[in-house]
Amino acid sequence: MSQARKDIIFKAFSKADKTGDGKITVEDLRGVYDVSQHAKVKSGEWTKDQAFAEFLKTFDSPNNPDGEITKEEFLNYYSGLSASIDSDEYFEQMINTAWTL
Question: Which secondary structure element, helix H or strand E, spans residue 35, and what is its range?
Fold first, then answer.
């Protein structure tokens, strides 16, 4: 993966890690990720906290499902996604849009 891609991933991680403790938690996500429009939240099936927890699971390591995302787990998730995107510009735009950088 190019350094430009890693840089934008780390920028997104830093934005999401509101407390600056090197991990992203539900509390960190509250200010940067809006779950109110999630279909299951809108239907009442899930609370906002459940939606945040499910979102965290997409990044969490299966070997350590602790409900927190480390910088390494965040990078690993986006490394997998990066492999399917040829254009650096498109990848950067996608991350910028997703995390409103």
Answer: none
Cα distance between residue 25 and residue 34, in whole Å: 14
From residue 85, how far is each of 6, 54, 78 by CA, in Å? 14, 24, 11
CA-CA-CA-CA dihedral for 49, 63, 96, 13, to nearest 10: 80
- What pLDDT digit, counting tens, does each position of 33-49 carry? 778 878 899 999 999 88
**Can you give the pLDDT at residue 31?**
77
> What does the buried/exposed string (b/e) look like for 20-42 if buried means 16 or more CB atoms within 10 Å of the residue's CB?
eeebbbbebbeeebebeebeebe
In this predicted structure, the answer to whether residue 20 has a pLDDT above a threshold of 80 is yes
**How many residues does this entry show for the chain?**
101
